[in-house]
Design goal:
Blueprint: H1 16-33, E1 37-43, H2 45-48, E2 62-68, H3 74-82, H4 84-91, E3 95-101, H5 102-106, H6 111-123, E4 125-127
Parallel strand pairs: 2-3
Antiparallel strand pairs: 1-2, 1-4
Helix pairs in contact: 1-4
């Protein structure tokens, strides 16, 4: 994915190094998950454009929803989440992946999951898979 510059760029709120780290992580997810990867969705403050500045005492993370055809085994999700740590050391911002299957998103099991789906529909920005 190479978003074009300008207002349509879903990563316009990220600094160049943050953007590079996120794009590399998305490429890693595509490589490791293959056809089971259905969607990548930027959400939260990174999608809305109201992240804390990198130099502030509070640090916003980069929230990323990873939607797969079937639920991932816990070990796989943990391994993929661990891949974000070297990127944090490089760009100074934590990428926070959340792994959900398409079924989990389409049929929220409780109020918390339903609220997450609502926030995602309102603020989420799809990234190219």
């Amino acid at each position: 994915m190479t978003p074009a510059a300008g207002s349509d760029d879903p990563l316009r709120h990220l600094a160049p190094l943050e953007r590079d780290c996120l794009l590399r992580y998305c490429a890693l997810l595509r490589e490791r998950l293959g056809d089971s990867l259905l969607r990548l969705v930027l959400f939260g403050s990174a999608a809305r454009g109201d992240m804390w500045d990198a130099g502030s005492p509070m640090h916003s993370d980069i929230d990323l929803l990873v939607v797969t055809a079937e639920p991932l085994p816990a070990e796989t999700a943990e391994q993929l989440a661990n891949e974000t740590y070297p990127l944090y050391l490089e760009c100074g911002r934590q990428i926070g992946p959340q792994f959900r299957s398409a079924g989990e998103l389409s049929q929220p099991r409780d109020e918390r999951a339903a609220a997450f789906a609502e926030n995602l529909a309102r603020d989420g920005v799809d990234l190219a898979v």
